[in-house]
């Protein structure tokens, strides 16, 4: 049998079972935990100790990341500069200016037939010679606007991501490892960690309460409910990532992290919804442009 750090590599509970467990609330959650033999038995299945926590060895931590995921939600890939340029070009006003510039350039290079030239009474040769400048000026203006817009968006996105990564790197949380309370980065928390929670904490992962003392949590960020929710091992032991501890203190067993936590699942769904909304907006813009050009052709 394969072993990791002196214990079996196969856990007594799967990632799917832990995700399903964290979807339950109240009495349903308590009954499900009791079905596994209680929170102490779940700790045994995850090879952790409620009092001493994890061993903290590199092999054990990495194996838990590989099995249950890491405690970070992958950000949406940043848009390249060319993508931002393309998005800037989708502006309806700029599209109209582009078409006007192309029409102006086309007319400036148009040469009438010989018979038509004879009918012209007077022609300003200088105007005919430099008529292309107007269309070129419009095109240059559009290019400048697009490049400036794309550059500003690119700079803002880089600054935002830099600030976000710096904040995430500075966020520490109290966990018990090797029977000692340690402050570690939130991204280093894994399933099986024992976390100490107290008033003012923003919970970094989903967990099951091992013990609590007058614990109340603000879950409005996930549920929209403004009232503080009282938590306890006997009646509602599930605490969720992204929620704030408003009163009391306690100790929890980390049961889901990153994209497998309830907050991670919501963020993933929101990301998919945002992508779909962006596609719909692009379709609407394209439809608006088509209607404009159809109406223009109709009047002509």
TrEMBL record:
- What membrane topology is annotated for this entry? Multi-pass membrane protein
Identify the InterPro entries for this entry: ATPase_P-typ_cation-transptr_N, ATPase_P-typ_TM_dom_sf, ATPase_P-typ_transduc_dom_A_sf, ATPase_P-type_domA, P_typ_ATPase
Annotated transmembrane regions: 92-110, 130-151
Where on the tree of life does the source sit, at the highest rank? Answer: Eukaryota
One GO MF term, please? Answer: ATP hydrolysis activity
Q: Name one GO cellular component term.
A: plasma membrane
Q: Which Pfam families match?
A: Cation_ATPase_N (PF00690), E1-E2_ATPase (PF00122)
Main subcellular location of this protein, as a coarse class: membrane
This enzyme's EC code(s): 7.2.2.10
List, alphabetically, the SMART domains matched.
Answer: Cation_ATPase_N
Where does the Cation-transporting P-type ATPase N-terminal domain start and stop, copy by copy?
34-109
Where does the record say this protein resides? Endomembrane system
Q: Which UniProt keywords apply?
A: ATP-binding, Calcium, Calcium transport, Ion transport, Magnesium, Membrane, Metal-binding, Nucleotide-binding, Translocase, Transmembrane, Transmembrane helix, Transport
- Which biological process terms from the Gene Ontology are attached to this UniProt entry? regulation of cytosolic calcium ion concentration
Enumerate the PANTHER family for this protein.
CALCIUM-TRANSPORTING ATPASE, CATION TRANSPORTING ATPASE
This chain's protein is named P-type Ca(2+) transporter
- Write down the species: Acromyrmex heyeri
């Amino acid at each position: 049998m394969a072993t990791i750090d002196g214990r079996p590599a196969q856990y007594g509970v799967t990632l799917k079972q832990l995700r399903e467990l964290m979807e339950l609330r109240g009495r349903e959650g308590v009954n499900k935990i009791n079905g596994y033999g209680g929170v102490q038995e779940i700790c045994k299945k995850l090879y952790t100790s409620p009092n001493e926590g994890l061993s903290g060895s590199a092999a054990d931590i990495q194996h838990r990341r590989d099995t249950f995921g890491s405690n970070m939600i992958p950000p949406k890939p940043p848009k390249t500069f060319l993508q931002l340029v393309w998005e800037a070009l989708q502006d309806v006003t700029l599209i109209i200016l582009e078409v006007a510039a192309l029409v102006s350039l086309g007319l400036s290079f148009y040469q009438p037939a010989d018979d038509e030239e004879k009918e012209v009474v007077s022609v300003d040769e200088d105007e005919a010679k430099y008529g292309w400048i107007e269309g070129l000026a419009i095109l240059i203006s559009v290019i400048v606007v697009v490049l400036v817009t794309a550059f500003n968006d690119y700079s803002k996105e880089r600054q935002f991501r830099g600030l976000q990564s710096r904040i995430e790197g500075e966020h520490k949380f109290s966990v018990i490892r090797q029977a000692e309370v340690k402050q570690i980065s939130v991204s280093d928390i894994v399933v099986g960690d024992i976390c100490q929670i107290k008033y003012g904490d923003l919970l970094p992962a989903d967990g099951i309460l091992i013990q609590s003392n007058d614990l109340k949590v603000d879950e409005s960020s996930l549920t929209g409910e403004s009232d503080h929710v009282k938590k306890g091992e006997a009646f509602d032991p599930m605490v969720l990532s992204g929620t704030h501890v408003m009163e009391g203190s306690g100790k929890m067993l980390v049961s889901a992290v990153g994209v497998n936590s309830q907050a991670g699942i919501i963020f993933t769904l929101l990301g998919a919804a945002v992508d779909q909304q962006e596609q719909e907006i692009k379709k609407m813009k394209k439809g608006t442009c088509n209607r404009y050009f159809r109406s223009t052709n109709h009047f002509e």
